[in-house]
Amino acid sequence: MSITRQFSKGVAWMAAGNWLEQAINFIVFVVLARLLGAEAFGLLAMATAFVILSEFLVRETLSEFLIATPDPEDAHFNAVFWSLAGLGGVLAALLLIFAGPIAAFYGAGQVRGLIAALSPTVVMIALTAVPVALLRRELQFKTLSLRAISGVFVGGVVGIGMAAAGFGVWSLAGQRLAQVATNILMAWGAVRWRPGLSTSQRHLREVIGFGGQVLGLRAAELALAQSPSVIIGATLGPAALGLFSIAWRLVEIASFLIVTPLRMAAQPAFAAMTRQGARAADLLIDISRLSGLAAFPAFAGLAVLAEPVLHLFFGAKWMPAAPALSVLALVGLYFCIEKVQQSFCLAAGRAGAITALAWAEVILGAALIWVATRWGLVAVAAAFVVPRYLLWIFRFRVVASIGGLRVRDLVSCHLRPAFAALVMAAGVLAVARATEGFAPAIPLAAGFVTGVLLFAGLTFLLMPDRVALLKTYVGNPRENSAKQG
C-alpha cells in the first residue's frame, strides 16, 4: 500500500475516531457544565494550567525522535522510555511541592488538592509515550482511534457519576484520571515492545539532541495556551476564568476535530516519504489546500454564531463568553494550518526554528494579555490572538525553507478559502440577525444550513481544483497526487 493511501486511510480512521471521541466529550462537557457551573471549571483551569503543561512535556516530546529518525535501534526506544519516566517523575514531584504556593497565588485553597490529585497523570502519560509513538510510526491509526474513544467514554462515565453524587469539582479530577488510565491500558496492550535496560550515552545524546528541541517547543505551546488561565485567574477571578475556559474549550474541540486527524496521519507519512526519497513537500501542499476547505468555514461560522451556540448548549448564564469566543475562533483557524506545518518540520527533524518562534509568541503574548486584563475578557482574547498572527509569516518562511518551497506557495493556497469564508460569514450573519429573538436552535440551524450551502457553492465555483484533489485522495490516492489540481 502506498504512503499516500495509508495517509488517506489514517485520516479517515482518525477523523471517525476523533469525531466520535469529541461527540462523547462534548456531551460529557455539557452535562458537567450544567451540573457544576462556571466556578468549578475555573478552579479546574487554575490547577490544570500547570498539570497540563507537565503532561505535554512528556507526551509528544522525546518520543518524536522515534518517528523522525530513519532507523531507530532498540537502545533508542529504551533511552526514550527511561528518559521520559525520569522526567515524568520529576515533574509530578514538582507539582506536589508547588501545589501549596500555586493555590496561595490564586487565593483558592481547593487548587492545592486538585493539583495533587491530578499529578499522577504526568507519570502515567510519560510511561505510555513510547507505545503511542510506535503505533504512530507504524500508521496504526485504527488502534489509536479506539484508544481515544475508550478513554473519553470511561472518563465521562466516572466524571458524570461523581458529579451526580455531589463530588463537585473533584468529579472533573476523577474524569481525567479515569481517562488517562484507560488510555494507558489500551496503548500497552496494542504493542509487543517492552522496555529494557540496554542503551548507551550515544543513544541518549541522539534522543535528547532532537527531543530536547521538541521539549522546548511543547513547553512554549503550553505556556502560550495556559498563560491566559494563569493571568485571568490571578487578576479577574475564577468566574471570569470559567467563561474564558468555556470559550477556549469550544475552539479547542473544533480545531481538534479538524486538524488532529490530518496532523496525526501527516507526520509519520511525511517521515516515511522522506525515508523513501519521495518529496514530502508535495503532500504538505495537498494537505494545506484540503484543510482550508474545513478550517475556514468552520471557524468563520463559529465566530458569527457564538451566541446561539453558547445559549443552546450551555444556557443563558454562559452568554457573556460569546464575544470572547468570536475572537478566539481566529486561533482555531491558525491551529488548523500551523499544526500541519509543525508536523512537517518535526518529521524532517527540524524543530529549532519553530521552537524559537513559539517562545517569542509566549513572551509577547504574556505581556499583551497582562495589559489587556484591565479591559476585560474580549481584550484578553484579542491579546491571545495577536502574537500568533504577527509572527506567522516567519513560520511560513521556516517551513518553505525546509520543504524547498516558496513562501507564496504556502500562503496562496489559503487565499480562495479565506475569501469564500468571508462571503459565507456575511450570509450567515444576515440569517442569524433575521432569526434573532427565536429559540437559539433556530438561528443556529438556519445559519449552519446557510453556511454549508454558501461555502459549498463557492467551493465548486472558485475551487474546482480542490474538489478534484479531494476526490483523488478519497477515491484512488496516488503518490503523485500533489501534482494534480
Fill in the keyword field for this structure.
485 residues; 20 helices; 83% helix; globular; disordered C terminus
Structural commentary:
- The protein is an all-alpha fold and 485 residues long.
- Helix content is 83%, strand content 0%.
- The protein has helices at 3-36, 38-59, 65-68, 74-106, 110-118, 120-126, 129-137, 141-164, 170-189, 201-235, 238-275, 280-304, 306-314, 322-347, 352-372, 377-403, 407-412, 415-434, 441-462, 464-475.
- α2 (38-59) runs parallel beside α11 (238-275), α12 (280-304) packs antiparallel against α14 and α14 runs parallel beside α16 (377-403).
- The longest helix is centred in the middle third of the chain and has 38 residues, at 238-275.
- The two termini are 23 Å apart.
- Residues 476-485 have low confidence and may be disordered.
